[in-house]
Design brief:
The chain is of the alpha/beta class. It has a single domain, classed as 3-Layer(aba) Sandwich (Rossmann fold), CATH 3.40.50.1820. It has nine helices and eight strands. The protein has an eight-stranded mixed β-sheet, sandwiched between helices.
Length: 259
């Protein structure tokens, strides 16, 4: 009967390990190692969240004001200063991003509810600025951040949205990676942008990688199909999840869409 006890222990241990360690499977906080790569005109930006948590990031102002703005929401292993330093952002657009809770110099611990509420607060902060054209604020989400961007688009007057490697829900994606676990029952972080998408009537550009093994294209398509507004779908040939943003097609499509 010993083997039955061992088997039972394994059956119980695997779900317990997932339950206790799921934060480390979802979030990969990165520190700010340097800011030397940021453009010279980038400025620090801080925001105090509703619960008092201080979040830190940057604003890269446009060449003239009041300007359209892009709110950038990064991936689960991203320190956003590197994307803000990208030279292919349009110069006539202000780009804004805060590191998630626990990322960079931001305080706190990331959760789905906090990231979504912080995204709404960031929109409100940027929309109140005199140097921003509040009628032309776009959201730009990558991977995990597409859920935050979609939530903001569903609850604020966003002008347009770019979603890179979007997905229907974290539970659905997780189930594909862990088919032996009841992921939907065990998941604490309920990122489910497919529920917000029917309330998003603004134009969407979805950019996906055909070889994406982290967020398979089928999950991106489910979110895309649920989007209520006009939409464009771009698959970048030969790209995978991590190389997608390096392709010229990616930035050409994104900058044209923002303009």
């Amino acid at each position: 009967m010993m083997w039955l006890a061992v088997a039972a222990a394994i059956v119980l241990a695997v779900p317990a390990a997932f339950w206790l360690g799921q934060d480390r499977l979802i979030f990969f906080p990165q520190p700010v190692l340097s800011t030397a790569h940021l453009p010279a005109h980038a400025r620090p930006l801080t925001m105090r969240a509703a619960d008092g948590t201080m979040l830190h990031g940057w604003i890269v102002p446009a060449a003239s004001t009041p300007a359209p703005a892009v709110l950038y929401f990064g991936g689960n292993g991203e320190e956003v200063s590197w994307t803000l330093a990208e030279k292919r952002w349009p110069r006539d657009v202000t780009v804004v991003s805060l590191n998630y809770r626990g990322y960079g110099a931001s305080e706190g611990k990331p959760t789905a509810l906090h990231l979504q509420s912080d995204g709404l607060a960031l929109f409100d902060l940027v929309a109140a600025r005199d140097d921003v054209d509040r009628a032309r604020i776009a959201v730009f989400g990558r991977s995990l951040g597409t859920a935050v961007a979609t939530h903001v688009a569903a609850n604020r007057p966003v002008g347009r949205a770019i979603l890179v490697s979007p997905y229907d829900s974290l539970a659905s994606v997780g189930q594909g990676h862990y088919p032996f676990l009841p992921v939907s029952l065990m998941l604490r972080h309920r990122f489910a942008p497919v529920a917000d998408a029917p309330r998003c009537g603004m134009p969407l550009l979805a950019i996906v990688a055909p070889r994406d093994s982290i967020i398979p294209v089928a999950h991106s398509r489910l979110l895309y199909d649920a989007w209520a507004g006009p939409k464009q779908w771009l698959e970048v040939p030969g790209a995978d999840h991590n190389s997608l943003g390096a392709s010229p097609e990616f930035w050409t499509a994104a900058t044209q869409f923002l303009r």
